[in-house]
Amino acid sequence: MARRRGQGRKLSARILVSQLLILAITSAIGFVMLTYAQRDELDHEYQQRALDIARTAAGDPQIVQAMADGTGGDVVQTVASRIEKASGATYVVVIGLNHIRHSHPFPDLIGKAVEEPIAVLDGRTHTGMDNGATGRSANARVPLRGSAGEVIGEVSVGIAEKQAVGQLIRELPTFGLFAAAALAVGSIASYVLARRLKRTTFGLELEEIAGLLQDREAMLHGIKEGVIAFDPQGRISVVNDEARQLFGLGTALGSRLDEILPDGRLRRALDGSLEGVDLTVLTDSHCLAVNRMPVVLHGRELGAVVTVRDRTELVGLLRELDSVRGLTDALRAQQHEFANRMHTLAGLLELGDHEAALEYAVELSHSEPARTEAVRDRIANPFMVGLIVAKTAVAAERGVRITLSEDSRLTEQPGHLKRLLTIVGNLLDNAVEAVGNGGEVSLSLVEEKHAITLRVADNGPGIPSGAADSIFEDGWSTSPDRGTARRGLGLALVHRLVQQHGGTITVSQGPGAVFTVVLPLPDNDPAPLGAVFTVAPAVLEGAL
Fold first, then answer.
1. Taking the complete model, does pTM exceed 0.70, yes or no?
2. Are 454 and 419 in contact (CB under 8 A)?
3. Strand partners, 129
4. pLDDT, tens only, 278-304
5. Quick one: which of 488, 470, 371, 379 has its CA closest to 433?
6. Distance spanning both ends of the chain, measured CA to CA
7. 8 Å CB contact between 140 and 44
8. What are the DSSP calls for 506-532, one per residue?
């Protein structure tokens, strides 16, 4: 734990230092850019100030008169020096059209020609930076006009660049204060963000987070159980390959269950509406055991994790084993009955009543075959005959009588045979259990040109009131689990088989339940041999 906390502080420090470094660099870059921008602004401001001074000098009547008369001389220098001192300009230079200076802060340059051309010959003012005899300065040049408006000279005014630099230096502390304030605010925000990231990652290092992600991916996609994780809002955050295969999911990440699954027991088991352990859910091709557990870490609800196990093969084997046990019970019952008959026959022989013993033996030789032949006369398929005879024997041991209706007809190779075996077996089992000792169950199996109609009726209590809409759901049952087979799967399996192949199943309300199944013909999707047998074919053949 101490090592984990130390790593958490290290991660926070790394994040904080990185962000502070970024903030420092960006603040320095911003400070420099702001300094350059302010320098350009000051240059422009001083150029405008020089322009105003130049216009004032160009409008001075003494300078205009002296330049118009061509005298210049001391008058222009005197007036220019006065304007220069009053305005704080570095220089005020009056130049004639002959390029001769008539004023200058350096007296020895007065009367000498300038080297650059006269810029105001176009009649407009000009501003910019100038590298003259006094050094670099913000310069403005204005045309000097005579009384008729003609250009008679040029007034050039400059303000030394050092004045702008001095003002910029005086403003730099203010810029630095702004940058420091921004850096301080950013540092506080970075610290808060680092602390929040530390809590969010539960104190894990970045390398540990990457390792956990790799381990999680390897584990999720390597196990043979389906795993689905939900965030606190009920959206799918994790789903592995096995879960995609079991549920037929595509791209499900970020989706809610109601967006990808229809309403039903499966969706209710996944979203937590159904509570319990190892909830049994049937899909179109799988029998699943679903468990949902909430995820809480450090007092925070992080959603839930659902694990799904495929029990299709196991449930099939258990149901087959349960059917075999049923046949074993039937054979045991027949053995007891045979032993009783043999004792009766032996007693008659010991008493010397040979005629009565002969009649009893003849009667026994015709009773059992007669019952089997009665089924064979109506049902031509040997597997279905074996199933009905076996179920009849098991039911007889429990005191229940199963009868085959007179109108039953089934050919040797009927459509939906494998599904019919499953449907008949499950419906007969449910009916026998519902009626109990002394009850009666009637079976009708009629094959016509366009459909096979199956009807199983009993004289039991019937379907409970209000349960007609839920009896075909996975896990619905009025009885506890018995033996190896789980309750609540038979009717759900029958319902799915019928619906998948375009058939219908209906049930009447009590007393006495009547299940009616109609499967359309022809059978366009025959099941593989042995895919949906309720009991093994070899066992059925042994019962014939």
1. no
2. no
3. 138
4. 887 777 677 788 888 888 877 778 888
5. 488
6. 71
7. no
8. EE--SSS-EEEEEEESS-SSPPPTTSS
